[in-house]
Amino acid sequence: MSFTTLITVDELDANLDNPRYVTFDCRHELTNPDFGDTEYARSHLPHAHFASVDRDLAAPPNGSNGRHPLPDVETFAAWLGSKGVTDGIQVVGYDNAAGVYASRLWWMLRWLGHDAVAVLDGGWEAWLRAGKPTTQDVPQAKPRTFAPRVRDVNVDAHYVLENLESEKMLVIDARSNDRFHGQNETIDPVAGHIPGALNRLFRNNVSEEGLFRPGEELRREFEILIGGTPVRNVVHQCGSGVSACHNLLAMELAGMSGSRLYPGSWSEWIADPDRPVATD
Q: Which of 116, 114, 123 minimizes the C-alpha distance to 48?
């Protein structure tokens, strides 16, 4: 069985020793770059490799490409292969933030044409609540060749700018409502949002326990949000192209496949002072 969106704690536990599974620990904190490495060293799921949001799931920022620009395709593909990912491998990602960082891994695998990738529903907390095993052992991967098949699932700043007033694009911003409205901005140097964007905080996709809400509930809410806009015309963004992937995963769970990501997101958008900013 292939998991393409979510996998439960029990389902992953039953496959901990399955050689066709590769699991990644994606724990991260935006304001503490050492958090993920530290927590992984302290304890993680058996056989899980660490995936750094800053180093592995992003390229180095240069001041104009956002805080978490996408890595070069060949670089990311080589990293995946070094961890044992290839065709026929089930990839699983987990974190301790309701799936927000694991969903970035999920989206990036699909970007390169690998559908057998899932987020652990409930993440690290759900695993611990269930009393499942943890370890400090670092696994040794059997390197394989990962052949990327890049899909047209993302847009760039030029596309967003050119379509600001076009019916061909509807932007959904996954950041908190106060940051969207230019209030309490503590991460980026310019506050506000892309003109015309709608706001949906990614955490609205999960329950208080951090589990994704039922697909039919998510579908109703996204249908109200986007109205009659075709799903293909929906573009997701956030601060740096990470939490936006959570909304992409939620739409997939809702049976609304085909929306796209603006990876550079707000942190790239504001790097050019000529790009318009809204706060209303």
A: 123
The CATH number given to whatever domain includes residue 27 is 3.40.250.10
In this structure, the answer to whether residues 119 and 10 fall within a common structural domain is yes
H or E element: which one contains 11?
helix 9-13
* Catalytic residue chosen out of the listed positions 77, 91, 194, 238: 238
Q: Which among 129, 145, 170 is the end of a domain? A: 129
This model's pTM is above 0.90: yes
> What range defines the domain where residue 162 resides?
157-269
β-pairing, 117-120 vs 170-173, is unpaired
pLDDT at 1 over 80: no
Render pLDDT for 76-90 as a digit per residue (tens, 0 to 9): 999 999 999 999 999
What letter represents residue 148's amino acid? P
d(CA 175, CA 106): 19
SS3 of the chain: helix, strand, coil, percent, to 5: 30, 15, 55
Indicate if 26 belongs to the active site.
no
In-domain check, residue 279: no
Rounded Cα distance between 41 and 233, Å, is 42
Q: At 205, which amino acid appears?
A: N
| Residue 24, strand partner residues | 49, 93
Residue 141: beta bridge partners?
none
The total number of residues written for the chain in this structure: 280
Q: Is residue 138 part of a domain?
A: no
- The most distant pair of C-alpha atoms in the chain lies apart, rounded to whole Å, by 53
Q: Are 92 and 23 in contact (CB under 8 A)?
A: yes
* Percent of the chain whose pLDDT exceeds 90: 96
- Cα separation, 86 vs 215, whole angstroms: 29
